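G., the chain you wanted modeled:
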Amino acid sequence: MPLSQLDKQPALIVIDLQKGIVSLPLAHPTNEITSKAAQLADAFRDRGFPVVLVNVAGGAPGRTDQSHHFDPPADWADLVPELKEHPRDHKVTKMRWGAFHGTGLDEHLKNLNVTQVFVCGIATSIGVESTARYAHEHGYHVALVTDAMTDLDPVSHQHSVEKIFPRLGETTTTNEVLSSLNTNH
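Predicted structure as tokens:
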């Protein structure tokens, strides 16, 4: 479902636009995703709405069949400079797929009276989807900015966008969000 309205207190959550992840082979050009996320962040900041910048610095401790031994370079978790991190931004460093588990993000957003979250970033079927699922379960109105996200795998991206996201909230585009921000505030 497309964006129906902008709540009185929305927030933007940008997932894992960090040096180590944007350097991976992705389904869509990284510079386009980063540019759109940066436009959204600037627009939210200009209107005094919260911006949450998320990076990942580890993984869940549970056993899996895949080896997760990884020795990243020192700047792997650094946010991309295009996001122009601002002192008012809330930074979340996560150790799981989603940005809510064990990070205090829900409490932070609730303290700001946020009722709606716009989610974008990398990877669509992992960090973005997991964050959107938890946001939905916490009762936020979820909007997924589908042209400001990408995945390692195009089929996984498409599945999340077409099959999962419509069940979690509204799907929208960067231009729709920017237009709504300009019209309503």
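The beta strands are 10-15, 51-56, 90-94, 116-122, 141-150, 170-172.

Shout if anything looks off.
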